[in-house]
Amino acid sequence: MTSGPSQTSRSFAGWTTRRWLRAGVTGALVVLAVLGSLGGWAMWRTTQITASLVDRRSPALIESIRLEAALINQETGIRGYGVSGRPDFLQPYARGVADERTAIGRLRPLLREDDRALADLADVEKHAGAWQRHMAGPVSAAAPDEAAKIAGKRADEGKTDFDSLRRAMARQQAHLRDERAAAAHELRRATTLRDWVFAVIAVVIVLVAVLVFEALRRGVTGPLGLLGAAAREVAQGRFDRSLDGTGPADLRRLAADVDSMRLRLVEELRFTEGARRLLDEQAEELKRSNAELEQFAYVASHDLQEPLRKVSSFTQLLQRRYGGQLDAKADQYIAFAVDGANRMQNLINDLLAFSRVGRVHNEQQTVDLEQVLTRTLGDLSVSVEETGADITHDALPTVVGDPTQLGMLWQNLLSNAIKFRSPDRPPRIHIGAERDGDAWRFTVTDNGIGIAPEFQEKVFVLFQRLHTKDAYPGTGIGLAMCKKVVEFHGGTIGIDPGYQPGTRVVVTLPALAAASTDPDREAQP
User: What is the Cα–Cα distance from 502 to 269, expressed in whole angstroms?
Assistant: First the structure.
């Protein structure tokens, strides 16, 4: 017994918003079309009755009254002429005859669809013709002295004919008045019906609008609002909030898709939370390991200093005391030992300096880079003098950082520019500085041998050397230390790939909010 309604409800449950809207719009259009047809019919009926009343009924009654007046004028003129014999009494008769023809000519088309009215008109014309033949025609055609005799002789017959004519006209006008009254009554009914039809149309339109609004609220805006509120709760962190869809099938599918996305996000967040905890544990372990490695590197390097100094001192002493007394092989071996000890000592010192970046020297203060560069140039004065290097620089600003580390930065960059000079020209080095938003952009430009594009990233890796120690001495730590210093200060460092010949190192450091340089400073050697 309940399978029919349940199947219907299931079929409606599968309707989408588009299908509901299509069905609703189609139903509304059908209702409006029916209402429009009813309204048009009511207007057409009212118009037809009004046209019948205005264009036929009332003019027919008016023309009937005019016809009666024309016949009365004829009777008055004939009676006066018959009594007095004066020809001037024939003038009303002549006008009455003309008016009668005019009235009948207008009245006949108005009555062409009314058989009873046409019969009444024919009866009037018949009695008028009888009166014309028996009374009006003979009297009007007689001479003035004969008119009285004819009128007296035919007075009774003429009176009888004219009374019959009066009764015929009275019947005609009574019928026309009845028809006009019926038409007026029909017009009032049609007007009332029209008003009711339009009132019903207005009520139905309002009901349709209310139904459409309520259907949209229940089927579209309501479910979307609930889904949006649930989605906002999920967005605020309530991931356990289930998104239940209501309304048409597509909105329910949308809710199901959003809920599946929520479940996927819950799974992703659960996985991400586990990964984050694991990452935190690994980061803590890595931090501890790095601290141990730094401490180990420092202690190891520090503890290696004493035995290495002994090895270096005794090998140098052996070279001074016994140099030239042994064979060439022995002198070569002693030189190898001294060189290895010196290079080991330099490497240990560089490792100590690298491990101290950000750990030992960490005094954050305002640093005048102009003064730091002056001290660095003083430390490099011997190399500058030996190589004939020409070093210029722009006005340098004041930044926040550690003065010792920033001094190491300038020293490594400038010493590299001097070391890797071109053999056929003296080194020319320029330090540029310009403000770039919230940072300072520094460039160290030289005219040296340059760096191949494939090595411009590798040079900042620890112990990366592009040349042998015989061609260019060093430990391969300098640029790695520069990168560590710059990144510790929140900046970046890199090689400008478009600069040739030579090398341009680009360094950025955060700028002070009120950082300023002396405008009177110019590029100076």
Answer: 51
Q: Cis ω on the peptide bond leading into residue 501 (within 30° of 0)? A: yes
Q: What are phi and psi of 389, to 5 degrees?
A: -70, 140
Tokens standing for residue 240: 């356990």
Half-sphere exposure of residue 238: CA atoms within 13 angstroms, side-chain side = 9
Q: Give the span between the Cα atoms of 474 and 463, in whole angstroms.
A: 10
Would you say 239 and 265 are in contact if contact means Cβ atoms under 8 Å apart? Answer: yes
DSSP output for 277-314: HHHHHHHHHHHHHHHHHHHHHHHHHHHHHHHHHHHHHH
* Most confidently modeled range among 223-227, 257-261, 448-452, 490-494: 490-494
Give the Å distances, CA to CA, from 312 to 190, 329, 333.
129, 19, 14
Average pLDDT over the chain, rounded to whole? 77
Angle at 194 between CA 190 and CA 198, to 5 degrees: 175
Strand 428-436 to 390-393 pairing = parallel
Side-chain half-sphere CA neighbours of 172 within 13 A: 32
Residue type, 448: G
Evaluate whether 63 touches 110 at the Cβ level (below 8 Å).
yes
pLDDT for the residue numbered 517: 42
- Single-letter amino acid code for the residue at 390: D
Rounded-to-integer distance, Cα 167 and Cα 26, Å? 63
How far, in whole angstroms, is CA 66 from its chain's centroid? 76
The structure tokens 């006949």 sit at 108
Degrees, nearest 5: CA angle 254-255-257: 65
**CB 476, CB 455: distance < 8 Å:** no
Q: Which two tokens stand for residue 353?
A: 């300096």
Contact 338, 319 (CB under 8 A): yes
- Write the burial class of residue 478 (CB in 10 Å: 0-12 exposed, 13-18 middle, 19+ buried): buried
Cα 237 to Cα 191, 231, 255, 277, distances in angstroms: 66, 10, 18, 19
Alpha carbon distance 255, 231 (integer Å)? 9
Residue pair 173/61 in contact (Cβ under 8 Å)? The answer is yes
Q: How many CB atoms lie within 10 A of CB 92?
A: 20
Q: What are 278-319's pLDDT values in tens digits?
A: 888 888 887 777 666 666 666 656 666 667 666 767 677 776
Gyration radius of the chain's alpha carbons? 62
Task: Kindly list the distances between the CA atom of residue 13 and the CA atoms of 217, 252, 440, in Å, as whole numbers in the listed order.
Answer: 17, 10, 66
Distance of alpha carbon 493 from alpha carbon 461, whole angstroms:
12
Q: In this predicted model, what pLDDT tens digit does every residue of 448-479 receive, in sequence order?
A: 877 777 766 767 776 566 555 555 655 667 77
- Residue from 41, 44, 49, 47 nearest 180 by CA: 49
Instruction: Please name the residue that has the structure tokens 């002429």.
Output: 81
